[in-house]
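Researcher: We plan to redesign the surface later, but first we want a full-length starting point. Tokens attached.
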């Protein structure tokens, strides 16, 4: 059978996209130029919000059992600790940073796809794209240099920073390359270092980051004073540790040594008719904060349910464009904020001016002593604070949580929309109005209500766990109007009475 969707790129973002679309019943084909999945640690952290999304796939516990839990981010100036930021302050089932190599992330997702009969086609390259109103036609070359022409309804580019699809679309990848050089090492460390914390060492010569991978294996990352691009040696890494850490850590048995530069770039629109871009194909960031891979995976969770509703014609044609356009409207601002924040962290950590470094260190120490700052930093870093306040899918609300916000996750409840079809979830007290509301939209709503988040309220939660509509229990007419507009269009913001 011809696939409904062709996914180009089988890194974490493409694999996540394939898993979500397959769960919802679409026929997916996923290709990658590389002959094998990565064996490098690369992106190391999976944040709580991503784990919450993975829970709907039934994969969160598998990821957690294969990773290492880090609960703090610690800042140092030589041996002096400037600050410790707790990563377990959020109201989430996963109050930690899950440290897991990208090679493991890709393995787990690939094995999951294999369990649902989806195989990554490797050494397959996309060489041409033609787009018309109703389909996308591509030319593929396989491992035996054979040509294949394929026509599909949808194409999703998850093919990384050098995206073939993005180049074919002539979509400008606007931004800059930072004027600094960096090295990383995946090594074994011995000495006085904890495996439950991410450490950032701020030194006059630059930054040193230490990220746990296993009981004695760590990622070391640092900026350098030279513009050389050749990979570092183990001796180079040891010199950086001696200079910027000062605790006598010893690096041995390197698994991966590499030099790199930091790019900060983003496309203007993540949707081009029937083609969508996600992950590094749409936005690349500084590794500061470890947000890049997670942002891309959450691109996939955002797009998948919308594409399924449109492809399966569960919404009318009038609603389709706005529903699909909401992918860019929601995810582009998130990517822009990540890019801005990661860039600011990188520049703050690599200050050249001694006076400004002193001010920075004092502020870090002072501000992180406040609970509200700790909470804000924790929610931001763990991505629990991600929201879509300006989404065109938001119904105007008189209740809380507000539309566009992450819906609370309560112990003992199944994840929303964990089945084989994208469904909204109704949080409300049982009543004849609630039963009638459920009966009106059987294809788009879970069949039963869940207890309200606050007494006397009703709330609709989207398939990706964000609030769509919230109001008091007298607003059933407005709730009905919201769902009717969503299905039949044109979608309009619903104006509720006070």
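Model: Full-length starting sequence:
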């Amino acid at each position: 059978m011809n696939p409904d969707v062709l996914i180009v790129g089988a890194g974490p973002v493409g694999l996540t996209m394939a898993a979500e679309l397959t769960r919802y019943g679409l026929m997916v084909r996923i290709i990658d130029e590389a002959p094998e999945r990565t064996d490098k640690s690369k992106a190391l952290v999976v944040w709580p919000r991503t784990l919450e999304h993975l829970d709907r796939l039934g994969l969160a516990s598998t990821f957690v059992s294969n990773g290492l839990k880090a609960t703090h981010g610690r800042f140092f100036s030589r041996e002096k600790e400037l600050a410790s930021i707790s990563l377990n302050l959020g109201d989430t089932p996963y109050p930690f940073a899950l440290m897991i190599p990208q090679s493991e992330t890709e393995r787990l997702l690939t094995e999951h796809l294999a369990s649902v009969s989806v195989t990554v086609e490797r050494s397959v390259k996309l060489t041409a794209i033609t787009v018309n109103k109703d389909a996308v036609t591509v030319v593929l070359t396989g491992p035996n240099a054979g040509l294949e022409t394929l026509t599909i309804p949808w194409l999703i580019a998850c093919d990384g920073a050098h995206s073939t699809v993005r180049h074919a679309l002539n979509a400008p990848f606007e931004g800059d390359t930072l004027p600094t050089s960096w090295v990383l090492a995946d090594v074994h460390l011995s000495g006085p270092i904890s495996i439950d914390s991410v450490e950032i060492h701020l030194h006059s010569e630059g930054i040193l980051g230490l990220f746990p991978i296993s009981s004695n294996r760590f990622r070391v990352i640092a900026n350098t004073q030279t513009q050389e691009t050749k990979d570092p040696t183990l001796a180079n890494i040891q010199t950086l540790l001696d200079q910027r850490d000062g605790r006598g850590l010893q690096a041995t048995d390197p698994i991966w040594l590499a030099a790199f530069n930091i790019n900060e770039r983003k496309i203007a629109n993540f949707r081009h008719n029937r083609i969508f871009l996600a992950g590094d194909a749409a936005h690349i960031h500084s590794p500061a904060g470890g947000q890049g891979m997670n942002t891309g995976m959450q691109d996939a969770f955002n797009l998948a349910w919308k594409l399924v509703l449109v492809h399966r014609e569960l919404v009318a044609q009038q609603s389709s464009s706005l529903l699909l356009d909401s992918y860019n409207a929601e995810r582009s601002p998130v990517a822009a904020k990540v890019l801005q924040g990661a860039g600011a962290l990188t520049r703050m950590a690599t200050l050249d001016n001694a006076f400004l470094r002193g001010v920075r260190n004092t502020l870090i120490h002072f501000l992180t002593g406040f609970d509200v700052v700790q909470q804000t930093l924790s929610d931001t870093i763990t991505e629990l604070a991600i929201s879509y306040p300006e989404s065109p899918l938001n119904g105007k609300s008189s209740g809380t949580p507000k539309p566009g916000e992450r819906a609370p996750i309560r112990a003992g409840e199944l994840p929303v929309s964990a089945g084989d079809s994208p469904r909204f979830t109704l949080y409300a007290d049982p009543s004849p109005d609630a039963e009638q509301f459920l009966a009106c939209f059987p294809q788009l709503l879970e069949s039963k209500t869940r207890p309200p988040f606050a007494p006397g309220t009703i709330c609709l939660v989207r398939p990706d766990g964000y609030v769509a509509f919230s109001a008091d229990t007298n607003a059933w007419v407005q709730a009905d109007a919201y769902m009717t507009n969503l299905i039949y269009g044109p979608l309009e913001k619903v104006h509720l009475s006070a």
